[in-house]
Amino acid sequence: MAAPRDRSWLEIASGRQLALLVGALFALNLALYWPGAMMNDSLNQYKEAVSGRFTDWHPPVMAWLWSVLRRVHDGPAPLFALHLCAYWAGIAAYADAARRLGHRRIALALALSGAFPAFVFMNAYVIKDVGMAAALVAGSGLLFWFRSQGRRPGWGWAAAAALLLAYGTLVRTNAVFAIGPLLAYAIAPDRWLRPLRLGAVAVVVALAAVPASMVVNQLLFHPVQRHAVESLFLYDIAGTAAQLHEPALLAPRARMSDDQLQACYSPFWWDSFSAWGPCGRWVARPDPDRATYGEGLAAQWLGTIAAHPLAWAEHRLKHFNSELFFLVPLKHMRFAPEYRGELPGFTPYERFTPAQVRMDLVRKNPTVWPITWLAWGAALLVLLSRCAPSPGVLAARPLLVSALAYSGAYLLVGVATDLRYHYWSLLASVIATLLVGPELAVGWRLRSRGLWAALLLTGAVVAAGLAARLFDLQAWVG
């Protein structure tokens, strides 16, 4: 009889091995993008960090933290390194907990999942989405490390987890939709961590956390109001008007013809109506420091939805489809107003070449579509509702509900399309899937109908998305 093959290289057998692997991946991630990349949002927040004058256009906690870290070094490097430290510490905590549970191969998979190319690329940017994901994975990973061993964290570790979850919640306005299930995992008994209950907690905590986070931000940072929510109001009114071909719905906020409205509106993002967008010149913009800024806009928004609910729903579904990268053509950004070249008096950006359009399928393949992971996460959550409450199952349920609640909220509040908005959802879904690897392996061996249904559902979603790209489906992008 042949001797069994040594498979030790496929697993993490000791804490030292894990530390070496995660340390090497952290160093690689750090070296690849040092000192960190900046985008427009980052630059605006850094200006606030330098001036010490914060606004609420972006949650001020990141700019405040940056202002403190500037005492160490100017520029993005300190915050870039801090976010990466939190991210890889969270990955290490999940992997080490799995190793201690005896799941050595899963420990290796968890460690390597942190180096998924989309995540490493995302970590290059010093942006609030990365700050949120890094803080939440670190905080939840720390909780899992203790809870999976049946241990209660000491006051120091509990305070660290609380600070991480608080930063992750405050650094993005809509992070309130993600935090409820993680808080339930921190304090609720095992028998309570059921999907429906966690979903209810996500809604209740979000409703309470929205005003609470505003109060906390005002008390701690005294930000100048910039009324960022009004971008949502304007976008929804414009989107509803575009579906109905009734530009008069925008008055008095904006005055334009139907041809102009159709050329300006895109489910891809609201940017064309922004101060920096090609259609910003048609939008009335009072002084943002005036108390009357946007007066009556919220009422106009609610009235528009009440009067035209179907047109509003069509607009929201089109945008949500764009955000999830679902039934869209290749490089669907090319159908945004800035790239279509249909706006009079506006010079369009450089057109995309056919090769760039085709490359979109490689860069934005099904493994990074938010719709792929949300479909799989929803199906997996149904499966886990019937599973015995192992440590992995008990942690996976809150992660999946958090991911679904966070990305699902963009159906109502999203105004732009970018993968970074769903970073936490993808990361949480990947970790949750690996945590329940033993249960999935048993289901595979037993040919579980539920598991096959979940795989078929996910496969059908991917097939539909691929077909939309191959046939250049444009019905939902304008």
UniProtKB/TrEMBL annotation:
Going by the entry's taxonomy, the superkingdom of the source organism is recorded as Bacteria
Keywords (alphabetical) are:
Membrane, Transmembrane, Transmembrane helix
Membrane-crossing residues? 18-36, 75-94, 106-124, 130-146, 158-188, 200-221, 367-384, 396-416, 423-444, 450-471
Protein name in UniProt:
Glycosyltransferase family 39 protein
Q: Which organism is it from?
A: Ramlibacter aquaticus
